[in-house]
Design brief:
Rossmann fold; 16 helices; 4-stranded parallel beta sheet; 390 residues; Fumarate Reductase Iron-sulfur Protein, Chain B, domain 2; alpha/beta; 8 strands; binds iron/sulfur cluster
Length: 390
């Protein structure tokens, strides 16, 4: 983050004009109060943190970002909820990344994530033929238009060994509730979140156009996503006129509980604290449904961390950070695990594959006896299908 004090600075009016055009002028109201810098979690981990205000000031002056600070943003929006001028800071950061792509000034390694998306249909560099590997031991069938929902698994739960358990657990819970559902199997596409988080807006538009066509041809209506990132993409970045109705799975399970289709009979004695994923909470105001699912399980005692809901601390895995290195001692999740440990909970529950990965890594570093579980896994365990779902 250090800048040479004697560096020559070129003010580029064209850069500012490009940024203004790309953000519809949303960056202009920034009056440099610095509240965003104070709110950013990087300030909790570094002596010289990402200076959000300074990044925006340089942009206003027409100075392209040169030291990589725009790539630190986890798009958690903790700064936005505090900004007195309503600047959509995370979107501005992504737009700055987009300009960096246009100018060929992107950190090494990120292009390969997008090439993987292009060739394999996922950012994990895994072959499309393995997309259904998670279904081993799960009762899942191909989606038909007469099904109640399309179960949209997403890339991370399809390929990541840890998140595959979540995908299986959720399939078990849906089956226990008698839901008719199916998946698109190997045809399931990436939602485009990786392109979005890396600021590749042009490629994202292509992904969305192809997926809209695929969903329409498959007859998809209600789509239930495992990941808040996929849910956010479908809800906020896809056209609405094609009948697509995206839900995060916690919303759908809460609905099934209300309709008394999903019932938990046996107690699961556990003290649970819930971590709000940024793409579920701050981005989409989905705070109650995951808590409603946990509260419906007899024996579960829900305890809140002091930083919860809108004030929740980010795990650090959003905004493409899953594909960038973060030093072990500089991970937001280290602080989040400490927050959870202070509650005395047995289980740190969340409802996002990226949060699971970040929190579990930090939990291992901390050597804590607490367990990280997805809400779907807690529900499956309460239904007695936890073991088969693992
Ligand atoms: S909090 Fe808002 S107005 Fe203040 S410096 Fe940050 S972006 Fe600008
Ligand atoms: S969105 Fe989060 S990580 Fe990005 S600048 Fe704001 S507070 Fe920092």
């Amino acid at each position: 983050m250090k800048r040479a004090t004697d560096e020559a600075i070129t003010l580029d009016d064209a850069y500012w004009e490009r940024l203004m055009a790309a953000t519809d002028g949303a960056i202009a109201p920034c009056f440099q109060c610095g509240v965003c810098t104070a709110a950013c979690p990087w300030g909790l981990l570094q002596d010289e943190p990402a200076n959000v205000r300074q990044i925006l000031r340089r942009a206003q002056l027409g100075i392209p970002e040169s030291d990589g600070a725009i790539w630190w943003c986890a798009t958690c929006r903790a700064c936005e909820v505090m900004c007195p001028r309503g600047v959509p800071i995370a979107e501005v950061m992504l737009t700055l990344r987009n300009l960096a792509w246009q100018d060929g000034a992107v950190p090494k390694g990120l292009s390969s994530v997008l090439w993987s998306l292009h060739w394999d249909g996922n950012p994990w560099r895994r072959p499309p033929s393995q997309r259904e590997a998670w279904t081993k031991g799960a009762e899942v069938k191909p989606f038909e238009p007469t099904d109640e929902i399309l179960y949209y698994v997403g890339c991370t739960p399809s390929y990541d060994n840890r998140s595959q358990k979540v995908a299986r657990a959720l399939a078990g819970v849906l089956n226990a509730a008698g839901v008719s559902f199916g998946t698109l199997g190997e045809r399931e596409p990436c939602c485009g979140d990786a392109a979005y988080g890396l600021g590749q807006h042009d490629y994202l538009r292509q992904i969305i156009a192809a997926n809209v066509k695929l969903f329409a041809e498959a007859g998809v209506g209600t789509l239930v996503a495992v990941s808040p990132h996929c849910y956010d993409m479908f809800l906020n970045h896809y056209p609405r006129e094609n009948g697509l109705q995206p839900l995060h799975y916690t919303q759908y399970l809460a609905q099934l509980i209300d309709e008394e289709r999903l019932r938990f009979q046996e107690p699961l004695e556990a003290k649970v604290t819930f971590h709000d994923a940024c793409y579920l909470g701050r981005r989409n105001d989905v705070y109650d449904p995951p808590r409603q699912v946990l509260a419906a399980i007899p024996g579960v005692t829900l305890v809140e961390m002091p930083r919860n809901r809108e004030d929740a601390l980010c795990c650090g895995g959003g905004g493409g950070r899953m594909w960038m290195e973060t030093a072990a001692e500089e991970r937001f999740a280290n602080l989040r695990v400490a927050d959870a440990a202070e509650t005395g909970a047995d289980i740190l529950a969340t409802a996002c594959p990226h949060c699971i990965a970040c929190l579990e890594d930090s939990l291992k570093l901390a050597g804590s006896p607490m367990r990280v579980m997805d809400v779907a896994e807690v529900a499956a365990a309460a239904l007695g299908i936890g073991r088969s779902a693992q």
